[in-house]
Write a structure and sequence with these properties.
This protein is mainly beta and 117 residues long. It contains no helices and eleven strands. The strands form two sheets. Strands 2, 4, 5, 6, 9, 10 and 11 form a seven-stranded mixed sheet that branches. It has a four-stranded antiparallel sheet with strand order 1-3-8-7, with no helix packed on it. Strand 5 and strand 6 (57-59) form a beta hairpin.
């Protein structure tokens, strides 16, 4: 079993920044993909960014140039640096990991991000 715990959400004004963290624990992590999703009110959950074990990243068009995903493999941690936040970025952000060894995916509990105008 793998547990993912997010932190770093909060209330900010438009144009400001936040950094989300996701720490994984439990069974050996090993090679994995990690990602950040968000659930905006009234919309389907969407993937914001994903990063492979060797650091190759991809982003949703809506956040390209503003968000940066990174990871620290020895710490089983991923980060989402969010700059130039917009009100439409408001939502619950979830950490996701897919573990190659077990071919199983896991979700964190989510952290609320609120961007005010």
């Amino acid at each position: 079993q793998v547990h993912l715990v997010e932190s770093g959400g909060g209330l900010v004004q438009a144009g400001e920044s936040l950094r989300l963290s996701c720490v994984g624990s439990g069974n050996i992590f090993g090679p994995s993909s990690m990602a950040w999703y968000r659930q905006i009110l009234g919309k389907q959950r969407e993937r914001v960014a994903i990063i492979s074990y060797d650091g190759v990243a991809a982003y949703a068009d809506s956040v390209k140039g503003r968000f940066t995903i990174s990871r620290d493999n020895p710490k089983n941690t991923s980060y989402l640096q969010m700059n130039s936040l917009k009100t439409e970025d408001t939502g619950v952000y979830y950490c996701w990991a897919w573990i190659l060894q077990s071919r199983t995916s896991y979700w964190g509990q989510g952290t609320q991000v609120t961007v005010s105008s």
